[in-house]
Amino acid sequence: MSRLSAESVTLAYDGRVIAEDLSVAVPDNSFTVIVGPNACGKSTLLRALSRMLKPRAGSVLLDGAAIGSYPARKVARTLGLLPQSSVAPDGITVADLVARGRHPHQGLLRQWSPEDERIVQESMAATGVAALADRYVDELSGGQRQRVWIAMALAQRTPLLLLDEPTTFLDIQHQIEILDLCAELHENQGRTLVAVLHDLNHAARYATHLIAMRDGRVVAEGAPGDIVTAELVERVFGLRCQVIDDPQTGTPLVVPAARRVSTGVRVSTGVTGSSAAAARPAGPPSA
Amino acid sequence: MNTTDSRPAVRALRTRGGLSIRFAPRAVLVAALLLAAALAASVALIGTGDYPMTFADVLRTLTGGGTEAQEFIVHDLRLPRVLVGLLVGTALGLAGAVFQSVSRNPLGSPDVIGLGQGSSVGALTVIVLFHGDPAAVAAGAVAGGLLSGAAIYALAWQRGVHGYRFVLVGIAMSAVLVAVIGYLLTKANLTDAARATVWMVGSLNGRDWSQVWPLLGVCAVLVPAVLGHGRSLRMLEMGDDSAYALGVPVERTRLVTTGAAVLLTAVATAAAGPISFVALAAPQLARRLTRSPGPNLTAAASTGAALLVGADWAAQRLFGADQLPVGALTGMLGGCYLLWLLHTERRAGRV
Q1: SS3 content of chain A, % helix, strand, coil (to 5)
Q2: How far apart are alpha carbons B179 and A230 in whole angstroms?
Q3: Which residues 294-323 of chain B have a CB within 8 Å of chain A?
Q4: Is residue B10 assigned to a domain?
Q5: CB distance A162 to A194 below 8 Å
Q6: Average of pLDDT values for A112-125?
Q7: Of the four listed, A45, A115, A167, B285, which is most buried by Cβ atoms within 10 Å?
Q8: Is B303 a member of any domain?
Q9: Chain A nearest-CA residue for B16
């Protein structure tokens, strides 16, 4: 079952067509991750799924009806989005920013109910920013700030949450921290998550459903363990690689081929440290 | 009514029926104090002039207990001037807050982006080419302001506003308009040129009830309309995508609020001339006083009113009755304010 899907959509910015006749369904209760090389249309697809971009043809369906046919507020109570470009207003505190996530649930005379307050406190606790509630957002580190934005999206209390490259510009430890948080939200709160990610290994580790795109088309989709192969990575990214089991999670781990792997040394699979390609000392080519 | 637990994320007042409004004590206090300051300055301004009156005299006359001479001076001469000042200040403060919020830039104010110059071109066209009466000049100013607003919208509004793009387009517009003003002035005969120059400084001198009523009518419609969009404007400051994701009708909010702001600026300019600095500074001062993020619409409007009436009173006190037009004083203050703003923005690494 799928509450959110794109049915044969054509996506274009002005005259430039990004994708044609593209169909994607987001499985309910999945952590769906969309991957693909730059300009493959993955962020564009996410924009269409979140109704930011109106398809030129075809339609995006939310609960069986075209997403554009709902009032904006109603969509905002069902589907949340963490865009790439968010601006924290000058001088805003963490609590105040997270509180803004309640906007679609409020009205002129219902501006702040006890429920709003409770949900905001819960969202800050779930993302580990409760202790920062009174701090100014501009003072925080990149990782903390991203958690605050996620808290805001959580406060929206939507069963579906879309994240556009939530880990970009973060240090590696913060990237993992954010992805762990997403996995937790997916597992513990039963939300359907859709994220665009740059890092294929992150995608393979965290996704329950992976969509691989290239040139505006879906090349493969399914559980990462089923679809991530060296052949797929080469087809999608044009990258020669070896796919091994992640020693931590058992999910596929993509190891890019070394600069000169074609010297006839057969690479053994399954063992990371002893791989001939990985162990080759860096230096000028000798052959 | 009750408030929630020890440290709520947002303070609110609630009724048993489930209604609730956000309540920021500091913002409410600041708005109340500013309003009180504006009213006090108004009373002081009414008492200032060739026939000085005490605070008590003014209040007595306003409530219907003055002598016949006092009645005439207050009701026919000075009250309309003060009301024009209050309304123009309110309109400019509010319009400035809207523009700065939508452009996400403190320089995105009507003064900077050429709305005042647009109104000037309209007014000067009427004065110089048609030798029109004051009503026609006011109509020309409104038309000029609206046209330049539409032009900026068309030039700067491609897929959302980028703060500096908006400001730069506005600066280019105002440069062109200033050139047109210069051309019109060289075409004018001496009388018209003098009249045009006086108009362009911006003044509250000699304003009467015929300026009050149209201004009051426009403000009565547009001020509530803009305030009603305040919550959406707050969301818009986080970027179009975020606002959209939160269910804000982004384009409609922007069109309604900036349209109202252009109209408010045009009508205010038609009534008092292009008074500089108020729309630029009022929202920034208000935000620093309330220390809360967002457009601070109410506080900005009251700051505008207090600033303009206060400046007019100061000009009259310091330089004598009707000697210095209030626009000259606000212009001087505005220059200093702009330098300070650039200084602090540079320290914050934004310029």
Answers
A1: 35, 25, 40
A2: 66
A3: 294
A4: no
A5: yes
A6: 90
A7: A45
A8: yes
A9: A113
Cα B77–chain centre separation = 23
Task: With cut-offs at 50, 70 and 90, classify the pLDDT of residue B318.
Answer: confident
Model-level pTM greater than 0.95?
A: no
Looking at residue B164, what is its pLDDT? Answer: 74
Phi/psi of residue A168, each to 5°? -60, 145
Query: The tokens 């920062």 sit on which residue?
Result: A132
| Of the partner residues A87, A90, A103, the one whose CB lies closest to the CB of residue B246 | A103
Run of H or E residues at B21: strand B20-22
* CB-based contact A175:A187 (threshold 8 Å): no
Q: For residue B322, what is the domain's CATH number?
A: 1.10.3470.10
Tell the residue number behind the tokens 């939310």, with chain if given.
A62
Res A261: pLDDT: 54
Residue B5 falls inside a structural domain: no
The pair of structure tokens assigned to B218 is 């426009």
CA-nearest residue of chain B to A47? B241
Q: Give every CB contact of residue B184 below 8 A, 6+ residues apart in sequence.
A: B121, B124, B125, B128, B129, B196
Looking up tokens 């089991």 gives A245
- Cβ-based contacts under 8 A for chains A and B: 113
A287 pLDDT above the threshold of 50: no
How far, in Å, are B82, B92, B341 from residue B135 at the CA level?
20, 21, 37
The number of CA neighbours under 13 Å toward the Cβ of B33 is 9
Tokens 């403190």 sit at which residue?
A: B106
Which residue reads 């924009």 in tokens?
Answer: A47
Residue A12 to residues A16, A19, A41, A48, A217, Cα–Cα distance (Å): 5, 7, 10, 10, 14
pLDDT at position A275: 42
What's the domain count of chain B?
A: 1
What are the chain A neighbours of B241 within 8 Å (beta carbons)? 52, 81, 83-86
Coil vs helix vs strand at A222: strand
Q: Is residue B104 part of a domain?
A: yes
pLDDT at A162 over 90: yes
CA B86 to CA B80: how far, in whole Å? 10
Q: Specify the range with the lowest mean pLDDT, choosing from A168-182, B3-17, B191-205, B336-350.
A: B3-17
ipTM over the 0.85 cut-off: no
Res. B266: pLDDT tops 80 = yes
Show the domain range for B122: 23-347
Element (H, E) at B261: helix B250-272
pLDDT of amino acid B351: 45
Higher pLDDT, B157 or B190: B190
Amino acid at B271: A
State yes or no: pLDDT of A276 exceeds 70: no
pLDDT of residue B162: 66
- Tens of pLDDT, residue by residue over B136-181, are 999 999 999 999 999 988 887 766 556 678 888 889 999 999 999 9
Tell me how close the Cα of B231 comes to any Cα of chain A, in angstroms. 8
Contact B245 A76 (CB under 8 A): yes
